[in-house]
Specification:
- The protein is of the alpha/beta class and about 450 residues long.
- It is built from 19 helices and 14 strands.
- The strands form 3 sheets. The chain has a 6-stranded parallel beta sheet with strand order 3-2-4-5-7-6, with helices on both faces. A 6-stranded parallel beta sheet has the order 11-10-9-12-13-14, with helices on both faces. A two-stranded antiparallel ribbon has the order 1-8.
- Helix 15 links the parallel strand 9 and strand 10.
- The radius of gyration is 24 Å and the shape is elongated.
């Protein structure tokens, strides 16, 4: 299942990506010039050996959900975020063997566990395609007939598999053809990494053939983006991109790589630490018992509660199902939240909103308590905001603090991933052996359903 799919933002969905990027933009901008290289091959090989040993000794690498489900120190978060999913990886190159930047990029994808990419070739990305043909793990390239097709294919792949979708395009028109898909992935909170070729560094800013300012074009429709100006930055940038795409409120990350950087020879260092301190510090901690006790108290005083579950519940389906079984509260889903609760269950009110079921909208209108889990109160759901759930007290739990109170005031606002929040709430209900009786609330809903 996908994670709690929310993007980090400010007042509007499109400008929201700027907030996610701001925590890392200035920190990474200064590093694109690269770090000093050592001329000692033995030193480089030794560092790679240490990095390989550190990963090999790890019995299990941390899933990105751990960062919002467990209280971690800053150092622990940095160490865990720096680990690559594939350990004990054996490169087809020697430790001190130089290789092209494109080969480093493909190996970085292999170390991230990528097994499928969607890519359409062009002059500025041809080096990457040549390196893909030599992939040690035989990364499959699905050749779409248009870049817009590939970016939506990568998005669908991410939604279906729970992995990070990867697409590759050339510079200029290839990159601009990704724009609609990147915007869609941002608004739907889908983890994706888009890699684009760029004109050689010396030609950037000269209006060269098929040159467009890809980073500037995509800045507000990606969670973050990179312009790689040094071949030695590729391992770190790829690791950061995949972590950013899949952690917190997921979204698309773009990596723009000039053609001459792809062609430069280098010996990669696979052990760099990610430098995302600002971003990591803004990930939510698990909710406290007093916070969830407030929710439980509001639930005890309610007569007509409804759960309004969105895409943030996709990785919390077991916890949501347990919560509904413990309380007997009817649940309705947004379009992005479909699948997080069984539609065949009698307590499912299916989808709400403009394109949803009448009985779901009736329940929202009549409710005295609205439990909004992982939602953003989209206008296709709410209609006139002032009239939406006008009779209800609202509990809003979301992994993105910018969504809380943005469209609808919440009487209880909790900045948290849904999974640990529901886990804590379910524990409180079981601990108090609380019982609920909403038998008078369900018949009117069923009348509307009939």
């Amino acid at each position: 299942a996908l994670g709690a799919y929310r993007h980090t933002g400010n007042s509007s969905p499109m400008s929201a990506a700027m907030s996610a990027a701001s925590a890392v933009a200035f920190a990474t901008a200064g590093r694109t010039a690269g770090r000093p290289r050592t001329n000692a091959k033995a030193s480089r090989a030794a560092r790679n050996s240490v990095a390989t040993a550190a990963v090999s000794d790890a019995s299990q690498l941390a899933p990105t959900s751990m960062f919002t489900e467990t209280a971690l120190t800053a150092q622990q978060m940095q160490d865990l975020a720096s680990q690559r999913p594939v350990h004990n990886f054996v490169s087809r190159f020697g430790d001190d063997e130089p290789r092209k930047g494109a080969d480093i990029l493909v190996e970085a994808l292999e170390r991230e566990g990528v097994d499928c990419v969607f890519a359409y070739p062009g002059g500025a990305s041809m080096e990457i395609h040549q390196s893909l043909t030599k992939s040690k793990t035989q990364i499959r390239n699905v050749l779409c007939r248009h870049e817009q097709g590939e970016v939506f294919a990568a998005e669908g792949y991410a939604k279906c598999t729970g992995k990070v979708g990867v697409c590759i395009a050339t510079s200029g028109p290839g990159a601009t053809n990704l724009v609609t898909g990147l915007a869609d992935a941002l608004l739907d909170s889908v983890p994706m990494v888009a890699i684009t070729g760029q004109v050689p560094r010396r030609m950037i800013g000269t209006d060269a053939f098929q040159e467009t300012p890809t980073v500037e074009i995509t800045r507000q429709i990606t969670k973050h983006n990179y312009l790689v100006m040094n071949v030695e930055d590729i391992p770190r940038v790829v690791r950061e991109a995949f972590f950013l795409a899949s952690s917190g409120r997921p979204g698309p990350v773009l990596i723009d790589i000039p053609k001459d950087v792809q062609q430069l020879m280098s010996v990669p260092y696979w052990g760099p630490k990610v430098s995302l301190n600002g971003y990591l510090s803004r990930l939510p901690n698990p909710p406290t018992n007093p916070q969830m006790q407030q929710v439980l108290d509001m639930l005890k005083n309610s007569k007509r509660p409804v759960v309004y579950a969105g895409g943030g519940c996709l990785d919390a389906a077991p916890e949501l199902k347990e919560f509904i079984e413990l309380t007997g509260i009817p649940v309705t889903n947004t379009l992005m939240g479909l699948g997080c609760y069984p539609a065949s269950d009698p307590l499912s009110l299916h989808m709400l909103g403009m394109h949803g079921a009448v009985y779901a909208n009736y329940a929202i209108d009549s409710a005295d308590l609205l439990l909004a889990f992982g939602v953003r109160f989209d206008d296709r759901v709410t209609g006139k905001l002032e009239a939406f759930a006008a009779r209800a007290s609202i509990v809003h739990i979301d992994i993105d603090p910018a969504e809380i109170g943005k469209n609808k005031h919440a009487h209880a606002a909790i900045f948290s991933n849904i999974k640990p929040a529901l886990r804590t709430l379910n524990g409180l209900i079981r601990g108090e052996k609380a019982t609920f009786d909403f038998s008078e609330w369900l018949p009117p809903i069923n009348v509307q359903r009939a």
